[in-house]
Amino acid sequence: MSRIVYCNGAYLPEAEATISVFDRGFLFADAVYEVVSVLGGKLVDFSGHMARLRCSLFELDLPSPGSDDELLAIHRELVQRNGLDEGLVYMQSTRGAADRDFLFPPKETPAGLVLFTQAKALRQTEAAERGLSVITVPDLRWARRDIKTVQLLYPSMAKMQAKAAGAQDAWMVGEDGLVTEGTSNNAHIVTADGALVTRALSHSILHGITRASVLRLASEMGLSIEERSFTPDEAKAASEAFITSASSFVTAIVSIDGVAIGKGTPGETAKRLREIYIAEAERTAI
After folding, report:
1. Fewer CB within 10 A of the terminal residue: the chain, N end or C end?
2. How far is CA 215 from CA 112, 201, 252, in A?
3. Do 95 and 65 form a contact (C-beta atoms < 8 A)?
4. Angle CA(124)–CA(32)–CA(246) in degrees, nearest 5?
5. Percent of the residues in the chain that have a pLDDT greater than 90, as a whole number
6. pLDDT at residue 18, rounded to an integer
7. Rounded to an integer, what distance in angstroms lies between the CA atom of residue 82 and that of residue 76?
8. pLDDT score of 112
């Protein structure tokens, strides 16, 4: 059965949903997006995703596609129409359609808005059970990685480079030799003495919604948390490593550049954080 998608004000079968060839998201990647997880037919961390959306819109002077309540209603309607129990809702908001010009179109140009669902296993996955292997690659993205734009070509290329190397993902490394983040996730390590280390928020990384929830839960567990940068060598010597994102929750990294992390299997900290994150996500989803 074809999915129902939301496209600029209408709910349509996916085969009938179209956007203008002049949409600036298509021509300039002049757009931002959010991905909200769905568990039991309910939305996880929705308010956090909306807060980050507002920040992205503000930083790029993009028009708002609607109020938080309006966007919540669209998300819920799509989940209901597609009978989605577990998976994701993708939302993309653009500067709208206008004749191609590097200058922004008039302020009154309506924002473009597209949403669609993806059915996907989130609670129980092979990646969570076995862990992931990553390689390190240079971070060649623009400097404002805190803005969740649709400029995802380099992360896509890095994922393909990882696949060619027999790994599942890549961790990007800046010119300073420090890990920034994964291609679509935040990077974390656990030191030999049990401290959770993850890069501090800045323009260098995406301000992950799942990252924030997991750090709060880790603090409640009594874990020592260090928000600082680390090198690939420190990560390879760590007792554990893991990623966080809306689609992966907490997923262990078991090797980096072919070097086994810890015992080469998902560590206890990552497994416990994943367990309590999912439990809270199910409890608080709306």
Report:
1. N
2. 34, 12, 15
3. no
4. 15
5. 99
6. 96
7. 10
8. 98
Using DSSP's 3-state secondary structure scheme, residue 106 falls into coil
Beta-bridge mates of residue 117:
89
CA separation for the pair 60, 31 (Å, rounded): 9
Classify residue 110 by its DSSP letter: P
pTM of the model: 0.95
For residue 112, give every residue at least 6 positions away whose Cβ sits within 8 Å of its Cβ, in sequence order, or none: 8, 19, 20, 23, 24, 25, 31, 65, 92, 93, 94, 95, 96, 97
Separation between Cα atoms, residue 113 and residue 65, nearest integer Å: 6
pLDDT digits (tens, 9 = 90+) for 31-77: 999 999 999 999 999 999 999 999 999 999 999 999 999 999 999 99
Q: Please report which residue ranges of 8-100 form alpha helices under DSSP H.
A: 24-28, 46-59, 68-81
Residues with a known catalytic role: 148
Pairing relationship of beta strands 186-190 and 31-39 according to DSSP bridges: unpaired
**In sequence order, what are the residues at sequence separation of 6 or more whose Cβ sits closer than 8 angstroms to the Cβ of residue 73?**
none
232-267 pLDDT, tens digit each:
999 999 999 999 999 999 999 999 999 999 999 999
Q: Is the pLDDT of residue 1 over 90?
A: no
> CA of 224: how far to CAs of 63, 201, 261, in Å?
40, 17, 20
Tell how far CA 124 is from the center of its chain. 18
Instruction: Dump strand ranges (E) for the chain.
Output: 4-7, 10-13, 31-39, 42-43, 86-94, 112-119, 132-138, 169-173, 179-182, 186-190, 196-198, 225-227, 240-245, 249-256, 259-260
DSSP string, 197-229: EEPPPSTTS---HHHHHHHHHHHHHT--EEE--
